[in-house]
């Protein structure tokens, strides 16, 4: 029996202060007041027959409204989440304005047992975050992707050299 699998793309850019990553915050009433430990890379589930990278590209566009294009990708590997789900991720360099986020939506009965269904954005906001701030905000099971990106970019060595 296979556990659910997800794939996602982590956009990064290099700012004057060092690398920044684009994380997204889940939409809907359950996440409205959660911040630390709630943010994620744009990702989504895929079936066993679907190419994980194709799924990552599709989910990135559906959740953000931005196309990833055909960038040079940094493979960030896999990470098993607390739920048992296996997430595979890639990073790519890019730059977007978080204010232009256009997420797909999902329907949910809200308030519970009210009989009324409302549409909520799957992602309600996106933000560029420094690696230390991203580590604070990302869901714990995805933090390994930040570490792997940092290692690949040499950000850990840059921080040490700067005395940070």
Which SSEs are present, and which pair or pack?
Elements lengths: L4 E11 L2 E9 L16 E4 L5 H13 L9 E7 L5 E8 L11 E5 L7 E5 L1 E8 H7 L5 H11 L1 H8 L2
Parallel strand pairs: 1-5
Antiparallel strand pairs: 1-2, 1-3, 2-8, 4-5, 6-7
Would you mind describing this structure in some detail?
The protein is of the alpha+beta class and 164 residues long. It has one domain: Nucleoside Triphosphate Pyrophosphohydrolase, CATH 3.90.79. The chain contains four helices and eight strands. The strands form two sheets. Strands 1, 2, 3, 4, 5 and 8 form a six-stranded mixed beta sheet that branches. β4 (74-80) and β5 form a beta hairpin. The longest helix has 13 residues, at 52-64. The radius of gyration is 16 Å and the shape is globular. It starts with a strand and ends with a helix.
Features:
single chain, 164 residues, alpha+beta, Nucleoside Triphosphate Pyrophosphohydrolase, six-stranded mixed β-sheet, 24% helix, 35% strand, disordered C terminus
């Amino acid at each position: 029996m296979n556990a659910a699998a997800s794939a996602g793309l982590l956009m990064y850019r290099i700012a004057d202060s060092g690398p920044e990553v684009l994380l997204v915050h889940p939409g809907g009433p359950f996440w409205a007041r959660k911040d630390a430990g709630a943010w994620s890379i744009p990702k989504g589930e895929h079936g066993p027959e679907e190419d994980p990278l194709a799924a990552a590209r599709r989910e990135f566009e559906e959740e953000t409204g931005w196309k990833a294009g055909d960038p040079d990708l940094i493979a960030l590997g896999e990470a098993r989440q607390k739920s048992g789900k296996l997430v595979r991720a890639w990073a790519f360099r890019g730059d977007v304005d978080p204010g232009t986020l256009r997420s797909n939506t999902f329907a949910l009965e809200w308030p519970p047992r009210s009989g009324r269904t409302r549409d909520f954005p799957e992602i309600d906001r996106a933000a560029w975050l420094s690696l230390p701030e991203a580590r604070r905000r990302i869901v714990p099971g995805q933090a390994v992707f930040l570490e792997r990106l940092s290692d690949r970019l040499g950000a850990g060595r840059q921080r040490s050299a700067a005395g940070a």
